Sequence to fold (443 residues):
Amino acid sequence: MPKVAIVGAGGYVFPLTMIRDICAFEALRETEFSLMDIDEDRLERTAGAARRLTREFDLPALISSTTDRRESLEGADFVIVTFQVGGLDAYRHYVEIPREYGVDQPVGDTMGPGGVFRGLRTVEVLKGLCADMLELCPRALMLNYANPMAINTWAAGELGVEVVGLCHSIQGTSALLAREVGVPIEECNYRAAGLNHQAWFIQFEHNGRDLIPVIFDTVVERYAAGAGNDDQSDELYAGGMERVRGELTQLTGYFHSESSHHGSEYAPWFRKDAQTVDEYLPRRWDYYEICCNHDEEGQGERFLQQVREKGLEPGHEYGAYIIESMTSNRPRVIHGSVRNDGIITNLPEGCAVEVPCLVDANGLQPTMVGELPPACAAVNRACVNVQELAVRAGLWGDREMVYAAVAMDPLTGAVCTLPQIREMVDRLFEAQARWLPSFRGDA
Fold:
């Protein structure tokens, strides 16, 4: 049976979700889980809940916990990365400081000053984690769930480990698109490709019928240029089916995988000032505030109660399906972020691309995409520029490259001058110095 190390297990609900999903497969009931976190209290809360879960369902899975990363990694077959370096303390800095300069990030975990600095903090930890993996579990597959997905996955690959970045935006958006055009998602075939949080649905079929033209007409008619923007159901609005993605679909010809709130951060057109934000996104959505008001304890208990009521059923996260496929040789297709080794030919070689991947006992095998539609690739390349600079900056401890990474960000460049960007980055370095040892003394 596999050994699964979960690094960042103090997060509670997500680690429990992973354990539930893995144990839902008969072939994985005896999995050995090693839970690791630097916060012992939070770690033991997760471990205690996981042990309750195994007892209630009479599972032979083994649950251990440790604050020693090397102990957790020893002999692991899979390493699930699910940590946020600095937690809410760090998050506050990279949301509030950029807002003083007009860079309003509703999430700030993928692009922009927030994404760059979150990536820098994570790469600091990945350096040691990857070195330990190469020594203690060199054949293990890293399943990275930590954002910024593209930056972290790219960096981990550069550090020599086998890695796939995993997200649920493809699953959620595909189901949302199927509802939007009125077909059952179970009867659809689709392929998405591009970047994490900016992958394009280049194929979407229902019983052999090409729905890409239908999606285009539906989305543009309903949501582009503000159509329907003031009269949306909470479900559609939460899913981001409104003006930002409508106009991006009109621009590129294809629908992409991130909500309009989050996706508006990655482009220069939608968040130039407060008036423009209000026009495109009239309902404020702020993920930092949501996290601050998050009832983690209550959510965890509700999760456990749902498992008791519904039984052991895997959710929509790809991680457990990958582990089951590689363990039992059951072939599946997932969408994951991997190194671009000629997979998408009009995106830079070596960057982290999100594409369909076959998974079986031979491991993770990305499928060839070829050229993305030109406008889709052009939008992606603006983001790849930022990601590449952030990866290099994090790996090399290069402060000047951080200035360049933030300056090349489409939204930041739309609202800030270069001197303003340098001042903002300096303030972020000062606020986050304790999590960035590679940059100390490099002022």
